[in-house]
Design brief:
Structural class: alpha+beta
Helix content: 40-55%
Shape: elongated
Oligomer: single chain
Strand order of the largest sheet: 4-3-2-1-5
Distance between the termini: 94 Å
Largest sheet: 5 strands, antiparallel
Length: 110
């Protein structure tokens, strides 16, 4: 049976290990799980017509989805590639329409 002093000494020896494990969980493991979940949600939300990029560097538009295999068109000559869902790096941003200022506007200001 441990006395009160021996009990506190035993706890004091294991406390740094417990603190280290807790720190590793909050600094490394938990953020990685959040990134993995966000990546999995992004890959599952891909639909036909989305523009994607692959881990191999291909950029294309999704034309067909069948289970975990996607078919993408990769260029203007409609080259089709079949890729696995896990090979998707991310969705490309949708193009934003911009309005250009008329060229005559610069002359009016002078």
């Amino acid at each position: 049976m441990l006395s009160g002093q021996e009990y506190l000494t035993a706890i004091g020896q294991f406390a740094p290990f417990v603190i280290l494990i807790v720190l590793f969980y909050f600094m490394l493991i938990r953020p990685q799980k959040k990134r993995d979940k966000a990546e999995r949600d992004m890959r599952n939300s891909i639909a036909v017509g989305d523009e994607i990029s692959t881990i191999g560097g291909f950029i294309g538009r999704v034309v067909n989805i069948k289970d975990d295999v996607l078919t993408i068109e990769s260029s203007s000559d409609r080259t089709k590639l079949k890729i696995y869902r896990w090979a998707i790096r991310g969705k490309e941003a949708e193009p934003v329409e911009t309005v250009e200022a008329p060229k005559d506007a610069d002359k009016d200001e002078k």
